[in-house]
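[job 4471] stage=fold_predict status=RUNNING
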Amino acid sequence: MSAMRSLYSLSKATRPLASRLSPALFLGATRSYGSQANSLKERLHELIPEKQKEVKAFKKEYGNKVLGEVTVDQAYGGMRGIKGLIWEGSVLDSEEGIRFRGLTIPECQQVLPAAQDDGGSEPLPESLFWLLVTGEVPTHEQVKGLSAEWAARSDIPQFVEDILDSCPKTLHPMSQFSLAVNALQHDSHFAKAYSQGIHKSKYWEPTYEDTMDLIAKLPNIAARIYRNVYIGGKLPAIEPNKDYSYNFSKLLGFETNSDFVELMRLYLTIHSDHEGGNVSAHTTHLVGSALSDPYLSFAAGLNGLAGPLHGLANQEVLRWTLKLKDTIGVDATEEDIKKYLWETLNGGQVVPGYGHAVLRKTDPRYTAQREFALKHLPHDPLFGLVSKLYSIIPAVLTEHGKTKNPWPNVDAHSGVLLQYYGLKEQDYYTVLFGVSRALGVTAQLIWDRALGMPLERPKSFSTAYLKNMFGAK
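[job 4471] inference complete, writing structure tokens
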């Protein structure tokens, strides 16, 4: 009966999807819809004791079950595929793609609240954050309250502004981003509470406060970097009655383009979380396991995101695509493109934006961006070239035989969309990724502290030790 009430509480537009989803997903959401005045923190006060009890009971009964074995190849191969982390917000399936608390990206687009005041259709990052933290689909009122709270917390200290303003324009935007987040640690609620002797059962509360402050301040930090390095001009004020993506777009100078605002809503939502094993997520979790506060933990994650094998890949893909365009033309034939691809591969280089450590199909995040482009910029020449690459590259990579997954990932598309709307500064793209990724990794930090997750300390071996273990000569 409670499941029926949950389904009924969804709007008529979402009922067709809701009827296809497991009723269990919405059981917890019943109370959320019945008590619309609850803030996110109030809801956590209700959920955390339930989750703690659930985890304790599960560990007691299943704690000795084996998740999988570890091979020598995995140890030398970057621990690829080793099952050894708990990550509540999302799970990545190699065939199905990402699910946020059980919901696929298309399902999130259908059931998560969008902006009501401007007729937006893409889910708001606020609604996705609520889902990641609670496992529940929020109401429009709850999302609006979260938007207002982030706007109210958005000011950054003067000394952080001074640090950013003193950075040389030649310092990479991601270095400046990490620098500013580290500086915000000056006002950490968790660091202060820990120094005063807070009980470990309460760790999650100052972690929550730091998380909310951090997320709220990121648009001001990121936009200040953008203006200092690229366009100049004073940052406008955040509008307290507008959503997170609108205000971020306004700070960047793009708020007058409603389609760009919609793109930011989509971008920040789909880049937010990708389970716990990727570098930025795992690093944030690892540093947080030492009881470093969310600022120090996320800054460490940003440094991982800045690597070319992770978040920096989105700018590398665009540069490669633009180089291809300049070399063989935006209207290149299929044969011209194949020849260029083989020259790239035979030259010992990779085709960026294709392949993924886990996925074995087209990344659903790529698909979501492609559908956005088909709706908003179907005749853009660069999008046309990307579409042509999508139809050609997988077959070439399959023939090449050295790529397990020849299909595109999220990085293969995001730069083209940003270019179209005039945000052409490629070195800045990973900063956008970082603003988004904060939603997923900090949501998990709250649960790490609520569930009392311990210091992470895997065992390591030397090559000599392994050779001796297996009797190798």
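[job 4471] summary: The longest helix spans residues 204-231.
[job 4471] exit 0
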